[in-house]
Design a protein that fits this description.
Layout (H helix, E strand, L loop, with lengths): L6 H18 L17 H13 L18 H11 L5 H5 L5 H11 L2 H12 L5 E4 L17 E5 L2 E12 L6 E7 L11 E7 L5 E6 L11 E12 L3 E2 L5 H35 L3 E2 L2 E2 L4 H29 L5 H26 L1 H4 L5 H8 L9 H15 L9
Parallel strand pairs: 1-4
Antiparallel strand pairs: 2-3, 3-7, 4-5, 5-8, 6-7, 9-10
C-alpha cells in the first residue's frame, strides 16, 4: 500500500491552496456573496469557476480528454481536502456533490453519444445535475431494492410514474439521472432497476417542493419530485435494462469517499478557527491555547483527522487498484462524518459565544456537518455493512492483503 502522491500533484495542491487563500476565502467575508440558502450565489460561483479553469484547477475527477484533470482517486483525496478548506471551494473547482458523482458515473458507463449530450455540459460547467433515487416510504432509500418508481416500456420510450424526495440539486439541475423499477417482480431485486437520463424541460414531471432543512443548503437544495408520465427515449437509458443497481454501486462508492475527502478539509478549517482564537484569547491570566483542557481537545481532534485521512487514503488506493473497497469506504464514511461533527462542535466550544454567532464559519459548518452522518447511507447502515463483512471474513477482516 503506497499513499504517496507525485511531486506534480503536490505542486497542484499548493497552487490550489493559494487560489483558495487568495481568491475564495475572501468571498466568505462578504454577506453579499451568499444566496438566501446560505450558499455562494450562482453568479459569483460562475465568475470564480472561470478563474479556476484558467488556473488549471478544474474537474479533477474527469479525464483530460473530456476537459478534466485526470487525477486518480488517491490524488483527488489530496486536492479535495485542499478545496474544502473553504466552504465554496469544491463548487468552484467543479468537484462538489452531486455533480461530482454524476460526472464520474457518466464517464464510466455512458455511451459516447450520451457523454457528448449529458456529461460534457456538466464538465464544462454549463449545467447542474441531479441523481434521482431516494423515495418516501415505502420506497427506496439506503436500500435501492425498495424503489417503487416505475418505468414502463411503450414502443421505443419509457413512461415514468412515481415519487422521489430529498433529491439533491433538483431546483437548479438541468440534467437528471433517474433510478426506476423496470421489472415489477418484487423478488428480482438485483435486476429490477434501470437508470435513465432526462432533461429539466421534458414534460411529465414536476418539483412538488423544495424541502426546508437545517441548512446551509447546497445549490438546488433537496426537493420532492412527482413523475406522472414522463417519457424518456430508450436511447437515454444508461447501460442495459436491469443494470440500475450496478450503476448505483458504481456511483455511490466513490461519491461517499469524496465526501470524506471534502469533510476532512472542513474539519481542518474548524481546527484553524479554534486555533486562531485560542492563541489570542486570554482568561484568568493565561491564553486559552496554553490550558491543558484546550490542548486535549485540539490534540484529540488532530488525531481523529489524521486517522480519517489514513482511512480515506486506504479506500482511495483500493479503488485505484480496481477494488470496490466497500468495507474501506464504509469505515472512512463513519469515522470522517463523526470527526467533522466533532471538529465543528469543538470550534464552537473553544470560541464560546463567538463560535455560536455568525462571526465565524463554525456555526455554518456545524449545521452542515449534521447531514454527514445521514447522506449516502446513514452511519448505522455502514456499520451493518461492516458487521456483515466481519461475519463473513472473521479475522480476515483485517488482512494486510499481501
Amino acid at each position: 500500500m503506497d499513499y504517496q502522491v507525485s511531486d506534480s500533484v503536490v505542486a497542484l495542491c499548493e497552487k490550489a491552496a493559494s487560489f483558495i487563500e487568495e481568491r475564495v476565502i475572501p468571498l466568505e467575508q462578504n454577506p453579499d456573496n451568499f444566496n438566501e440558502y446560505e450558499n455562494l450565489k450562482l453568479s459569483v460561483r460562475d465568475e470564480m469557476r472561470a478563474e479556476a479553469r484558467k488556473a488549471g484547477i478544474w474537474a479533477p475527477q474527469i479525464s483530460k480528454s473530456r476537459g478534466g484533470m485526470g487525477l486518480a482517486m488517491l490524488e483527488q483525496s489530496a486536492l479535495y481536502e485542499v478545496a474544502n478548506r473553504s466552504i465554496f471551494g469544491p463548487c468552484i473547482f467543479n468537484c462538489a456533490a452531486p455533480d461530482d458523482g454524476n460526472m464520474r458515473v457518466l464517464e464510466r458507463v455512458a455511451t459516447e453519444d450520451q457523454k457528448d449530450r449529458w456529461l460534457d455540459p456538466i464538465v464544462a460547467g454549463k449545467v447542474n445535475s441531479s441523481f434521482v433515487m431516494t423515495e418516501p416510504h415505502p420506497g427506496g432509500g439506503s436500500d435501492p431494492g425498495m424503489i417503487q418508481t416505475r418505468a414502463e416500456k411503450v414502443g421505443n420510450k419509457w413512461k415514468i410514474h412515481g415519487d422521489k424526495w430529498f433529491i439533491s440539486a433538483a431546483d437548479v439541475a438541468d440534467h437528471f439521472i433517474l433510478m426506476a423499477r423496470t421489472d415489477q417482480n418484487q423478488d428480482e431485486k438485483r435486476r429490477a432497476l434501470s437508470a435513465f437520463m432526462f432533461h429539466r424541460d421534458q414534460p411529465g414531471w414536476r418539483i412538488v417542493r423544495r424541502i426546508e432543512n437545517m441548512g446551509p443548503d447546497e445549490h438546488g437544495g433537496v426537493c420532492e419530485l412527482e413523475f406522472d408520465g414522463l417519457e424518456i427515449d430508450d436511447s437515454d437509458r444508461l447501460m442495459e435494462v436491469g443494470d440500475g443497481l450496478r450503476i448505483t454501486q458504481i456511483r455511490l462508492g466513490p461519491a461517499r469517499l469524496t465526501h470524506c475527502m471534502r469533510w476532512l478539509g472542513l474539519a481542518k478549517r474548524c481546527m484553524e478557527i479554534a486555533a486562531e482564537y485560542t492563541s489570542r484569547r486570554e482568561g484568568f491570566g493565561m491564553l486559552l491555547a496554553d490550558r491543558e483542557s484546550v490542548q486535549l481537545k485540539m490534540g484529540e481532534l488532530a488525531h481523529d483527522i489524521a486517522v480519517g485521512r489514513h482511512l480515506t487514503a486506504h479506500a482511495a488506493w483500493k479503488l485505484d487498484q480496481g477494488d470496490f473497497a466497500r468495507k474501506e469506504v464504509s469505515m472512512a464514511k463513519i469515522h470522517v462524518a463523526d470527526t467533522l461533527n466533532k471538529a465543528a462542535d469543538t470550534a464552537i466550544q473553544l470560541n464560546g459565544a463567538r463560535g455560536y454567532s455568525k462571526d465565524t464559519l463554525a456555526q455554518w459548518i456545524y449545521r452542515y456537518a449534521r447531514c454527514a452522518r445521514i447522506v449516502d447511507g446513514a452511519s448505522e447502515v455502514h456499520k451493518m455493512v461492516l458487521a456483515r463483512f466481519y461475519a463473513k471474513e472473521g479475522d480476515d477482516f483485517w488482512t494486510w492483503g499481501v
